[in-house]
Amino acid sequence: MYERGWRRTLTLALFLGPSLLGMVLFVMGPILASLGLAFARWDLLTPPEFVGLANFRALWADPEFWRALRHTFGFLLGYIPLVMLCGLGAALVLNARIPGRDFFRAVYFLPVVTAWVAVALVWKWLLNPGYGLVNHLLGLVGLQGPGWLFDPNWAMPAVILTSVWKDTGFVMAILLAGLQNIPREYYEAAAIDGAGGAARLRYVTLPLLAPALYFALTLSLINSFQVFDQVYVMTGGGPAGATTVLVERIVKNAFSYSQMGYAAAMSWFLFALIFLSSWALTRLQRRAL
Amino acid sequence: MRKLWVVLVFVLLANGLARTTINYFSFTTDQNHVKDLEALIAAFEKENPDLEIRYTTAPFDSYFTKLQTNLAAGSAPDVFELNYENFVTFASRGTLLSLDPFLRQDTSLNNAFYPAALSAFRQNNIQYGLPITFSTVVLFYNKDLFDKAGVAYPNANWTWKDVLSAAQKISNPAQRVWGVYQPVQFWEFYKVARQAGGGLQVGPRVQIDTPANREALRYLVDKVRLKVMPSDAEMSGVSNEDMFLGGQLGMLYSGIWMFDKFSQAKFKWDIAVEPGGIRKATHFFSNAAVISRTTKHAEAAFKWVKFLAASPATVKTRIDRAWELPALSLAQRALFDAYLKRPLPANREAVFDSLRYAITPPVVENQSQLQDIINQELEAARLGTKTPEQALADAQRRVEALLRR
């Protein structure tokens, strides 16, 4: 077990080999291939052909791409503040000593581990303007609910609400862990100094929670750039193209339009976008803390 | 005893080695017809003991992804199905085997097919596929709702005006009953544009935004505005076919593939040739079996294609099991007798009468992108976020940009 030298290397290689092989063949390989494809035209039927930067130039000139990018940012701007606030609220409440705390923690986390397709289908039904529960409840308090997924103006808000519902538990779990790492003594000291609940939140909880908040924010940001499943199942990019997003465009171009090169170029653009924004967020965090 | 085993193993081995396997991809075989396909395969293998068919089915939505992946991976099925719209892409990329050498040898197929169906699968004068099925769209109508409103039943001479006036009399949105449903999408639009005297042109010159086409789109979207057709919110995700089956639609434009489903209706219904505008135009959909250019068993593959397209066993199975119609020449009327004699709907002749006005859709190499663009603009017009004029102008501009690429 504790040999040195080549025997040890061999043992390690033997144990790590299978998973490394899978990783290289099925993850790294395709990723590198897609980098090559981004500079090629490939329709899957005829061999790929090198076209230089043509795919990126086409991207720049493609109004469909810009529209999808706008929709993606629209999703991000609606989703991130809401999911962070809801997650923080849930974490604060469920960090306090209230009855049934463990039960509610599990309940709020349940949507996170539920498959997106199932969640999207249930919400599609809940938001149905004709026989859905949401509009029925709105009707009980005298409000005429919108057409949600059938209305170009309401489809994206509906997708955002569903995503917030699903991901609140995820943000909550990260923040709960962060909250539990704050030593109790700080609160006691603050209380002795006469700090009320609001002051304790502002001057003790939030500053000490900042690393967890940044972590949750970064993950949510990455997730929202990659928004796809919910859009694909709930609206398919409709109505009238009101909810097309980047990943949906990538899938469309790759598998419906047979433009693998163009789709690969779009994927790498998305990668750059995610990389740069996460990097900027990390810099911001270092400066702030 | 041991000897017997050895002999048995050898016989099996020899048998297995001698049999040629043909891989076949199908999207026209849905779950209701898998058993029928298996029966056809059994009949074929009985006729050709040296051949074995191994089939794979996939629903239309995922079929082409699967097929393209297999082609890209170099594991193309020997025989596969294509619909007319996708045929052009596959033929022009050189993925299909010419059937001409086989057709020159085998004269039994001369004049066997419905001419438009056969020529649909020819490109640059080379025959790449044999049509295996065809279908068309007709006007379905709920007789009970017509009787209740005191309106005469549709007939082959009806025009748009008759549809609208009947729909207005039948509609009663408060009771959740509407006069008519006609989808507003690519398929309906190119046909209705022709009925209006226009048409979609995407050849060298793009002609989408024309006066006749604008009139066609106004006719399509006006039905919602006039409240004779349910809006998306009113339908709430229930399909138009289910609404018709639920007795909520007076008239429905739909395909003859719905006969089976509608036979469970609790009201009397029938069909008519689709009403026209200033002229008549009807859909013509056809699917073909084609052979991959890379197949190692071209002869055997052609046998299977021919069997699928024109064998008496296939024709009988398709008609008896209500599994689309074989695309055979109508001169062989006797073949279709069984089809015409089936009880519902009574006016089955309308299916064949429709073929007189059949048109085919415009097809380009980037077909699915073209359809997505046009569908998006039509949807915007239907939802009222754009006027029909705006929508067509945008469609024209976007399709021009697409074809320039």
UniProtKB/TrEMBL annotation, chain A:
Q: Which organism is it from?
A: Calidithermus roseus
Instruction: Report which superkingdom the organism of origin falls in.
Output: Bacteria
Coiled coil (UniProt feature)? none
Domain named ABC transmembrane type-1: residues: 69-281
Its name, as the record gives it, is Lactose transport system permease protein LacF
GO terms under cellular component: plasma membrane
UniProt keywords, alphabetically: Cell membrane, Membrane, Transmembrane, Transmembrane helix, Transport
Q: Name one GO biological process term.
A: transmembrane transport
Question: Which lineage is the organism of this entry classified under, starting from the top rank?
Answer: Bacteria, Thermotogati, Deinococcota, Deinococci, Thermales
Keyword Zinc-finger carried by entry: no
Q: Which Pfam families match?
A: BPD_transp_1 (PF00528)
Any keyword Lipid biosynthesis?
A: no
From TrEMBL, chain B:
Record organism: Calidithermus roseus
Write out the coiled-coil annotation as residue ranges: none
Organism ancestry: Bacteria, Thermotogati, Deinococcota, Deinococci, Thermales
Q: Does the keyword Lipoprotein apply?
A: yes
Stated name of the protein: Putative arabinose-binding protein
**Gene3D superfamilies registered for this protein in UniProt:** Periplasmic binding protein-like II
Matching entries from InterPro entries are given as: Bact_solute-bd_prot1 (IPR050490), SBP (IPR006059), SBP_1_CS (IPR006061)
Entry keywords, A to Z = Cell membrane, Lipoprotein, Membrane, Palmitate, Signal, Transport
Which family does this protein fall into?
Belongs to the bacterial solute-binding protein 1 family.
Q: A GO BP term, please?
A: transmembrane transport
